[in-house]
Structure formats: structure tokens, C-alpha cells
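WARN retry 2 of 3 for item q-0093 after timeout on previous attempt; input resubmitted unchanged.
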Amino acid sequence: MAYGKSQMPTRREDMRLLTGRGRYVDDIVLPGMAHAEMVYSDLPHGLLNNVDTAAARAAPGVIAVLTGADCAAGGLHGILPRYLPQAFGFGEALPIPRPCLVTDRVRHVGDRIAMVIAETRQQAQHAATLVAPDIAPLPHAVTLAQALGGAATIHEERPDNVAYTLRIGDREAAERAFAGAASTHSIDYGHPRVTANSLETRAGIGSYSEADGLFTLHTTTQNPHILRAELANMALRVPESMVRVLTDTVGGGFGMKTSTFPEDALLLWAARLVGRPVKWVCSRSDGLRSDEHGRGSSGTVEIALDADARLLAMRVRYLQDVGAYMVGAGPMPTIHTARLLAGVYDIPVIEAEGRAVFTNNPAVVPYRGAGRPEGIFAIEQALDRAARDLGLSPVEIRRRNFIRPERMPHRTQVNFTYDTGEFEALLDACLAKADWDGFEARRARDAGQGLLRGRGLGLYIHDTGSMNEQAEITFNPGGTVTLVSGTTDTGQGHHTTFAHQVAGRLGIDPEHVRVIQGDTDKVAFGRGSFASRSVTMVGSAIEVACDRIIEKGRFFAALVLETEAERIRFDPAGGVFSDQGSNRSLTIAEVAAASFRPYMPITDSIGLSALGAFKMTAPSFPNGCHVAEVTIDPETGEVRVERYTVVDDLGNMLNPRLCEGQIHGAVAMGIGESLMERICMDEGGGQLLSGSFLDYAMPRADHMPPLETAFRPVPCTTNPGGFKGAGEGGTVGSLSTLKHAVLDALAPLGVRDIEKPMTSQRIWQAVAAARARDGTAGPDV
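OK item q-0093 returned
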């Protein structure tokens, strides 16, 4: 059921979460529970000659100290990548496993060396400081330039450090188009490494039942069933039925928690070894060096235009840092960068080459957008550069190149087919809402106060939904409903969204719908929450299940009312089955109660229930337009985002209020990545320089402007609910928009580019350099 803004229900999870009654992993205490602490490498690269654990083993309260040698002797295996690029037709990578604990060589700061288990967390932390690894340093490569320049070899199987090469498009056609172009324009770009810093750090409690051989893991994952499969099949080598994964409240994931981490396997393995549950909670500083990271790419983008500034071709060369190990869904950022290069524009020829490169850094995995922001950033930045070069407005160059609605469905040159999209209408709506025409007056006002004001415009599109999913709806005899869903709520509001969807379709009170997720013993199967797939996939499966519930309900209602099923009609507004040939009717609760009668015919199960499944044959494509305005103090370089406007096409929305929340959070991450966030490694020593929140900056409330949002939905045609995903678009659209706004503010000084993150220091230096070139007074560099 879709709601207007005046009807939108509030999140039913919030009372529990905001009053401290959420049940995170660290809130769970099991009988006899021991505590674990990890020992991580302080070196980026080196030969592990020995791990001296004697002092740690003798420390108070220590139960065990486990090393890579113990893993090898005890049958705990490394974890292979979940996906390889060749499965998608992009390059050829080797399935190199990541060890749970290193046996021979450390490959990044934060590589796992040992696990200490003790009676208390404090005892485990103290004993971990006594573990003494003997590591002979090796040359390291923590930058792409170092890795490609031969500074170090991370894996002998790939001596050039290129994990794989992705190629897409027609190189010869691109060369012909560029040769015949009226103008060509290029940009170099870079996206620094960033990290999720989820509200709840990674954590887990492993336990083992000797009686039935069952491993149980309480954890913070985004995908319990995938985690179970990889723990069972890769690490532990036991049947999947012998592993149970449980999540309760999960404090954020953003893609980072889609991976199977060594700690997940170690906790289960250790619990069996010591005969007790083992709990581990990652500290913030350990998370910064051992969590998977995001972004970490750079490239060059070229576009060719005809005399009317219409796109003829696009050519891209880019590098993606994959870290020391390619893990989980590690190939996806490289792949999605290529797939989204077209943006919302009609580009006849696109040719791209991307190289995924091993470095002595933690692994890179999907991070809110997973390559999609990088692809959109490329075309949007190139168009803005071309507009400045040609003296066109950023609005006009986009109008000339949009894919027109009448050309939908439209197949791009990077193998996506957009089913719907009205991009110029979105642009017009966003310009009006942002008061685009009033900008010059605001710029003049700020100039009188010594401030530089700039505005940025960006459009985005990206794919959402993946694979297949299912949902099961079961009525209880009393008329209440249990919904079992294969996705996992990490803060998105599934318990509100899905309960109201079921209630709206079946005409019942949302409070009578219980949503179950995150338990592999209660949920038969699910693929988890990532790629903005929850509503597009589970929401579509719920639509199918509701249709089947209604059809079964007609059958049971006809039996009770002693009529034909063809004469039964269902009204979702009241949840009532009516006999069209009489005035008799039954509520759906009454029909559900009747379906459990001892001698009632059985359909595929006793009672009123249905399983709905949905397979994605084509993605949905949310899209939108962003406008940002920033001010810059040239004396300090401080940037303030003053106004931010978003108009999105998310198709049919189950709850626009929750969609707005997703946009706000995603834009906040875009502001952080654009202006302040960066994982910083010392090139000389290979050390992590941003190892705490004193060094790794994230946006605070005072960095956020008032966000104006609006929706102009065009229903999707590739799923039964007409849904388009909402979770990532705010980030996909904001990175290019904010870069445009900052460069627009600095354009009068002749500044053409600023490296991301566009910190106040970098902007201050650029202003100073510009003033020095012009011979005007300014701050000393």
C-alpha cells in the first residue's frame, strides 16, 4: 500500500530504539560466556616468522591464545571471494582465500595474527598486548602508484598486482568518434578510501552445542543466510544445517557488513575449542584498520561532443584499489562503475577499461552505492567541465543530452536497459524547488560579506534489486499475521514498511502484523539487505504472497458462505470477502479462523498462508536530480552547505517518510565523503594515519543543511509493485553535485579542480595559490 504524506505511519521501531531497548550484540550475555580480543598486524607487509604467545597464555584469566598454526592444525580454513568478475563477464580473477589468522605473511595493517580468549574483556585486552609477533618487514604498496610501480608484490600469483582487468565497449568506435568531434573535454578524478563507521561496530558471540553439533553465531551481518553458507562451506567445512546465524537489532551496515569476516569464523571455531560461548566486540580503532573499506578509485574521463554540444562518445580509464584481499562482493564497485557511466544521457559510444589492483590495505567492498556513485560522478563531472569550457550553462548541456521519455525502454552502451525515466521533468521540478533563478541574488549578498557562493547540479540513475527473494505470510487462527522475510533490517525500518504493506493489501491493523527476519532457523532462506534491494525484492515477493492469500481466502470464504469462489470479491479497504450474489460477507480474520477448522479442506497447507517469491529479470532504476549551494570563506577555506534540494523518482513508494530518511542519511554520507572523510595511509611507512575519530572526520549535525525533498514518481515496470530502491540514491547523486558546487564557488578565482575530500585546508591552499597567480593579497601558503 502506498501512502500520501498526510497518511504516512511513523516508524514503529523508534520507541524501542530511542529508549535504549534495542538488543545489539553487546547487550547479549550467554551463560558461561568468555571474551575475545584480536591481535592485528601493525605492519603493512612482512613475513610472519613466529608468534610468541607464552606471556599472553600466562596472563590472568586467559583461557586460550589461538594463532594461524592452530587454525591450520584445527581445520579452520580461509574464506574465498563470494563473487569473481568472470561470473559477470568482466575480467578474470583468481580465487585467493583470506586466512582467518595469518600463517606466513601479513599483507596489511589490521591483518589478523591471533585471537586471545579470557574470562573478561579487560583480561583479554591486557593479554593481547603481550602477544609478540616476529614479523620481518617487506616492501609495501599502500597507494595505487606504488602497487603498479612495482614497490611490492602482494600475491605471488599476481606479480603485477593487477587482480583483473575489466573492459567494456568498442575502442575503435570511440577513437573514430573522438577523431570527428567538434570538441573534447577531459577530467581526472579520485575517490579516497572511506569507511562505514557504523553506529554498532562489528561484533559477535559464537557458541557450540556438543549435544547436537550446532554452531550458533549472534552477529551484526546484513545477510545472515549468505554468512551461514560461507562459514559452513568455506571456513568450518560442516553442513549448513549445523550453523545458525542470528541478528536482532543491527546498528547500520552500509555494505561493510555484507562480508564474511575472519572473526565470524574464529568465534564459532573458538567456542567449540574452549567449550564455552565466546564474545568479541570490535573497538573503534580496530574497526578503522580491520573493517572493509569503500571507494578508493581514480581515473580519467573523456567526452566527445558535436558542434551542438551533444555527446558523441565517452572514454574512461580507471583504477580500483581492492586492498590486500578481494573478499565478499569485492568486484562489484569496479563493475558498477562501468555499468553506470552513461548516467541519464544518450551516449552513442562508451568505451571503458578498469583495472582492479591489489595493495597493502584492508579490502575494499561495496559501500553505499558500490561503484554507482563513481560511474555517475564520471559523466556528471565531465559534462560540467565541458559546459565551462564551452560557456554553456550546466542546465543547458544536460537538456541537450537527456534520454527522452519516448525512447524508453532505452538500452545504454554499458548493457543496462532503463525501463522508465522522465529526466528533464525531474530537472525542471528540482530547479523550481531549489529557486535556481534566485541564486545570483544570494551570490551577490554573500559576496558583500566576503564569501564565495557556488551552486552545483547533478542528476543520477542507478540499478536496484538483485537476484531473487521470498516472503511468507501466515495468518494465525486469531487473525493476526506473521510475515517472514529474507532481508535484514539494519536501520531501514523494515518492521514498519513491510507490516504496513501487508496490512494495506489485506485490510488489517498493522499492529497485528509481526515481522520476522535475521534468524536462519526461522527464515527458510534469504539473501539479505544490500543494493537497495529490500523493497524491490521482498516488497515484490510480499505483493505475490498477498495475491495468493486473497485467492486462498476467496476459496475458504466460498466454502463458509456456501457459494462459488468466482462470486467472492475482496475489499482491501475493510479486509472483507463479500458474496456478490447476496449481502453476506466475512472479514479476513473470520476467513483465517475458518481455514483452521479440523475438517476444512487443505490447500497447500493448513490455514491461510502463502509463500511469495520474486525473481529479478531486470533491475529497477531510481533516478533523481540534486541541487546544492555552498559558501566558502576564502580566508579560512571553510565550506558550508547552505541549501540542498532533491527531487527523486523512486517509483511507487510504500512510505515516503522513510524514503526521505534514506535520502537524508545518504546525502550526509555524500557530504562526509566530499568534504572531510578519508582513510589516510603513510606512503613511506605504510601506517594508518586516520586510526581514530580524532583523525578520521565525519559530518556532524552542524554540517547538514536543511534538506528539501520532493518526489516525482514514475512506476517501475519490472516488478509487480512498481518499486524502485531508495537506499543509495542520495549518495549516488550527491558526490558530483557537491563537487560542482565547490568548483562553481571557486571558478571566479580560476580554480578548476580540488582533490577530494575538499577540506578547508585544500580549499584555502587553492585560494592562496590563485591569489598568488593573480598578484592579489591573500593568506600565506
